[in-house]
Amino acid sequence: xxxxxxxxxxxxxxxxxxxxxxxxxxxxxxxxxxxxxxxxxxxxxxxxxxxxxxxxxxxxxxxxxxxxxxxxxxxxxxxxxxxxxxxxxxxxxxxxxxxxxxxxxxxxxxxxxxxxxxxxxxxxxxxxxxxxxxxxxxxxxxxxxxxxxxxxxxxxxxxxxxxxxxxxxxxxxxxxxxxxxxxxxxxxxxxxxxxxxxxxxxxxxxxxxxxxxxxxxxxxxxxxxxxxxxxxxxxxxxxxxxxxxxxxxxxxxxxxxxxxxxxxxxxxxxxxxxxxxxxxxxxxxxxxxxxxxxxxxxxxxxxxxxxxxxxxxxxxxxxxxxxxxxxxxxxxxxxxxxxxxxxxxxxxxxxxxxxxxxxxxxxxxxxxxxxxxxxxxxxxxxxxxxxxxxxxxxxxxxxxxxxxxxxxxxxxxxxxxxxxxxxxxxxxxxxxxxxxxxxxxxxxxxxxxxxxxxx
Length: 455
Hints:
- By secondary structure, the chain is an alpha/beta fold.
- The chain has helices spanning about 5-10, 20-30, 40-45, 60-70, 85, 90-105, 115, 120-130, 140-150, 175-190, 210-225, 245-265, 285-305, 325-340, 350-370, 375-385, 425-430, 440-450; strands at about 50, 75-80, 130-135, 155, 200, 235-240, 270-275, 310, 400-405, 410-415.
- It is globular, with a radius of gyration of 21 Å.
């Protein structure tokens, strides 16, 4: 028995989990419909795939949500996990699910997949026969992803950096790397049986003034960490940043750099895809404005050439979106994509060159770390501030980088901290900022910039 299989048997011997039948699950994956694999749909390359968000506590509610999405012509169904399951608190998830079912009231903010179990959930997934994406935010997702794949969910979002630095304060980063190494290996192993399990990194990070260079570096590193464990299908992603031009440049550089770094590995046969998130920051409370923001992001996704777009709703500012609001966004986004054609190619060679130089410099610094493995190099780079995510709550993150928007709403690096931004690039970044203001005015500008889409 392999060391991985020994670890799997320990992880899956959990009192809150269905008895796990390895042979039955492998047989299910081997014979699963190819329509359930987003990697199969990516290979078709017929259109940009549209995926909403959404997760309800009970099976009945989640089933009804999927019915709405299918009527709205969704391409990829979401399964958003509740916060108790994200924190591996399966006892509370079980209790809250029971209360939700008994009182017909949502006591959880998502679907408790481990509690429902893979045998129950699989009935729903295979009924709709569409790819499902697991959205969760879990540092230790080992039990969750085993349950997901056994259920027929063949896209797993997240990673040791993107699902830790934006969400957690104290969870040990080194443990997150090791737990996600398990995730990658399990995904790679199942990928040998049918179409590839797709792994997707979470590009928005804190969704708060993160400069494109940091976003891209983290996407590339999570991609490489997955590929070295045998993953054959991976999606890099980023979110709408507030400037159409900066989004287009970011998309071009991210796609180019992902292809470059993937081709330089022993795993160059992996398929790499680009995903674009509609605005992830604070939404306008005016629902008409929210609709316009969503439509604009759909246009940008087309100009970026994304393989998939992840949607938001007009109700983001007021609470958890209803299934009706989610379905409306899917239908509107599909319509917008159908009528878009002949979009101009926008190129800003200077911005693209500056961003490429920044990304290359940070990646070189990570690779130059003396540690003996890639995950340790990345761990050290975060600990030492070579990688610094603005507004991360995690204690290991340096939070010395300061960013602000320029007059054209581009995110600029005003203070680089310990991030090795080349001097030429740093001068360029700062030259776009108004550095004449006092500290109070700059802080007020940053606060305004965080809520830029609300005004």
